Amino acid sequence: MSLRYFHIFFILLSATLCAGVAWWNVENSGTSEMTYGFAAIAALLPIYGIRFMKRSKSLV
Question: How many domains does the chain have?
Fold first, then answer.
């Protein structure tokens, strides 16, 4: 597994974990700032992953 694919895998894993924490926070009546923060990170990480894939194609 190349470093590029590991990076993509780690981004997807992080986005999934952030979405899970946001959902857990909603279910347990947590603070809304924490919920919104993790939800925003979960939404932005795949965008970062797509941009990383496009930019790293020229490196391979």
Answer: 1
